[in-house]
TrEMBL record:
It comes from the Bacteria. InterPro entries: RCC1-like_dom (IPR058923), RCC1/BLIP-II (IPR009091), Reg_chr_condens (IPR000408), Ub_ligase/GEF_domain (IPR051210). Pfam families: WD40_RLD. Keywords: Repeat. The keyword rRNA-binding does not apply. This is RCC1-like domain-containing protein. Residues 357-690 form the RCC1-like domain. The keyword Ligase does not apply. PANTHER family: OS09G0560450 PROTEIN (PTHR22870:SF408), REGULATOR OF CHROMOSOME CONDENSATION (PTHR22870). Gene3D superfamilies: Regulator of chromosome condensation 1/beta-lactamase-inhibitor protein II (2.130.10.30).
Length: 710
């Protein structure tokens, strides 16, 4: 929507002069910031334009940089007051200014933002007055309403402009990128998704190459909210602002400069909105904001030699202050770079009304589901904005309405949102799942048991875990064939298990270490029956070992035994068929992870066996690294009155009848939950700062608990 065009009435904006844009009739009460595409048209001198809230002092920042005679646009995000007006300031010469309203942020309900790792979505060739379409069905979830793209026009054969809009709607009278013949200009674009998640792109004149880099998407279901700020300079290679150690130096070819946000951006921020300005590079180049790793293939800012130009960027943030939150990469020559902060995106914590989940421990790629991917949490933190949780089996939460939420990595589509790649630090809804009564997971695959006794899976199909026979990832749930009347499910590394109503156990997936329990190491295309088991009441699985609790309270184990985890007292590396675990009697449940195993008994005591390296079994006995630490028979832990148990990769947890949680084992990532990075706990210790807990959840990387009243 065009909200300003000085060519139609107001006239040129002179040097040191301003023009106001009144948006009170365009955006609702409660608006906190507006997004404008600001275009400068043919200034009489090299200049810059600053956008800021009307009625406030002009900040020392620039929003748009213009060469003499240039036509150039830049997307601008501006905080607004209750007056809902923006002032545009021109520094030198006289210029016309055009502003198109792209959207706004408000305190009311609306879509939230999820940043992604910048991805080159498309590279298109467009002729004069030609329209192309870009589809995003494989890159964003079904619920997405809009996408954010860095749109770059490359070397048009004539002066032109580019316009992007939702497919199915009329092309607006507006431009997103303006280019002179032969120029390379970028601009950030936020565009609503049209029919079938498709957007349209129009080129006005000449022939042009266009690159579209995906920066993120909006959806009403989850994501981060925007916190606007008056423009403030947070990075400047000319002065050392925002540089580690205050280094004053341009960014050289092939090098990256770390961005240290300091107090301007809190740790919980997941993305920053930065106006990036490149100053006088020694040769033509591009600048990329990234998180390190492989050399970036996307660009945020394109510059000719000696040019000074700006472009807005939504920069994904990781790590915590004072570590670098992002990096700025320069491709060629050397260039000074300036960044002005317009605001940041963050995920509100809490939001749970009742039946909440709390998590702590390792937080790589948002693995805690608390809204941030920064560092680790050494104390319990509420799962972001989710109520009605009845079960947690990392990285999934089952809700009372029978739907499932997922968080963390999505490398194989394990979030179940219809796309593959990246991660989510906030819980997202798994598509097409209702009537779910239990969830579990293997390493990159999720499983859900529905009330009709069927099992559904999504994510990685390694080992034919999904029964699809093609081993291709499935980012939405599919039914696992060959299973019916199932009452419980469990997941190992690449093997899954199901218990049916007759007390029979079924296994599928990988069978390298005898995980099927049928005396072979051969895989099967469909679930196979575990040998010799009937009357089973519950099942559990670790990476490569499985367990069944019998109706008489005894336990059977099979699979890998290289750490004594089968508990049958032998040195056999593999136990190919189920064997009884001596001394494990009166058992109601078995939990396990990798090499250590715990069993809950009817009298409220807990047994542990397997590898006790550095005391992770919690039986009160330390074992130094490198020693013979295998405990081959079930051994009591010094804890009583237990009603629930859980395991993680470095130890375990017990819940007693008072709602108190006890933890033991390693503490590298804060698994003990007491806020201190002590080395370990060889006996159970209390996890503090928790309300009375109702049940424990499962996670390989830390603690998960369910709380009825937060």
């Amino acid at each position: 929507m065009r909200v300003l065009d000085t060519r139609e009435g107001a006239g040129l904006v002179g040097p040191g002069r301003t023009v106001a844009v009144d948006l009170a009739s365009k955006v609702p009460t409660g608006t906190t910031a507006v997004v404008l595409n600001v275009t400068g048209v043919s200034p009489t001198a090299e200049t810059y334009v600053t956008a800021y809230p009307s009625g406030e002092a002009r900040p020392l920042a620039s929003s748009l940089n213009l060469a003499r005679g240039e036509i150039r646009a830049n997307l601008v995000t501006v905080r607004v007051t209750d007056a809902r007006a923006v002032t545009l300031y021109n520094h030198l010469g006289s210029t016309h200014l055009v502003a198109d309203l792209a959207g706004y942020y408000s305190t009311g309900d609306g879509s939230r933002f999820s940043p992604v790792v910048y991805t080159l979505r498309d590279s298109l060739e467009l002729g004069p007055r030609q329209t192309a379409t870009l589809g995003f069905g494989h890159e964003v979830p079904e619920s997405a309403t809009a996408v954010v793209l860095n749109l770059t026009g490359v070397s048009p054969t004539a002066a032109t402009f580019l316009t992007m809009w939702p497919t199915g709607a009329a092309r607006p009278v507006a431009s997103n990128v303006n280019l002179a013949a032969g120029a390379v200009n970028p601009n950030l674009v936020t565009v609503a998704l049209g029919d079938d998640h498709i957007v349209s792109l129009y080129n006005n004149a000449g022939t042009i190459t266009v690159h579209a880099d995906l920066a993120g998407f909006y959806t009403p279901e989850y994501g981060a909210v925007f916190a606007p700020r008056s423009p403030v300079r947070v990075f400047d290679t000319r002065t050392g602002v925002g540089q580690q150690g205050g280094v004053v130096a341009p960014i050289r070819a092939g090098q990256s400069a770390p961005f240290v946000a300091g107090n301007h951006v809190p740790d919980e921020a997941v993305a920053a909105v930065l106006n990036l300005t490149g100053v006088a590079p020694t040769t033509g180049t591009f600048v990329s904001a990234w998180q390190g790793g492989a050399v970036p293939q996307h660009s945020n800012l394109n510059l000719a030699a000696r040019q000074t130009a700006a472009n807005l960027a939504v920069v994904r943030l990781e790590r915590a202050n004072p570590d670098p939150r992002a990096f700025f990469y320069n491709r060629n020559g050397s260039v000074n770079l300036v960044a002005d902060l317009a605001g940041y995106f963050w995920t509100p914590t809490g939001g749970c009304v009742a039946d909440c989940a709390y998590s702590w421990g390792q937080n790589v790629d948002g693995g805690l589901g608390t809204g941030t991917s920064v560092g680790h949490s050494f104390t319990p933190t509420q799962l972001a904005d989710v109520s009605g949780v009845v079960q947690v089996a990392d990285p999934y939460a089952l809700l009372a309405d029978g739907t499932v939420r997922a968080w963390g990595r999505n490398w194989s589509g394990e979030l179940g949102i219809g796309v593959v790649g990246d991660f989510s630090a906030v819980p997202v809804r798994v598509l097409d799942l209702t009537g779910v009564v239990a969830v579990t997971s293997t390493m990159e695959t999720g499983f859900a048991l529905r009330s009709d006794g069927t099992v559904w899976g999504w994510g990685s199909a390694k080992g034919n875990l999904l029964g699809t026979d093609d081993y291709e990832p499935r980012p939405v749930p599919v039914q696992v064939p060959g299973l019916a009347n199932i009452t419980a499910i469990a997941g190992g590394h690449l093997t899954a298990y199901a218990l049916d109503a007759d007390g029979v156990v079924w296994a599928w997936g990988d069978n390298t270490n005898g995980e099927y329990g049928n005396g072979t190491d051969q895989p099967s295309a469909r679930p196979v029956r575990v040998s010799g088991l009937t009357g089973v009441t519950s099942i559990g699985a670790s990476m490569f070992t499985a367990f069944a609790v019998m109706g008489d309270g005894t336990v059977r184990a099979w699979g890998l035994n290289n750490g004594g985890q089968a508990g049958e007292g032998s040195d056999e590396t593999v136990v190919p068929t189920p064997v009884e675990v001596p001394g494990a009697t009166g058992v109601t449940r078995v939990v396990t992870d990798i090499y250590h195993v715990y069993a809950l008994r009817t009298d409220g005591t807990v047994l542990g066996w397997g590898d006790n390296d550095r005391g992770v079994l919690g039986i009160g006995v330390d074992c130094p690294w490198g020693g013979d630490c295998v405990v081959r028979v079930p051994t009591p832990l010094p804890v009583t009155g237990v009603v629930d148990i859980a395991a993680n990769s470095a130890g375990g947890y017990a819940l007693d009848g008072t709602g108190t949680v006890w933890a033991w084992g390693g503490n590298t990532f804060g698994e003990l939950g007491h806020g201190r990075l002590t080395e370990k706990a060889v006996s159970p210790v209390v996890v503090p700062n928790l309300p009375p807990v109702d049940a424990l959840g499962f996670s390989r990387s830390g603690g998960r608990v369910l709380v009825g009243a937060p």
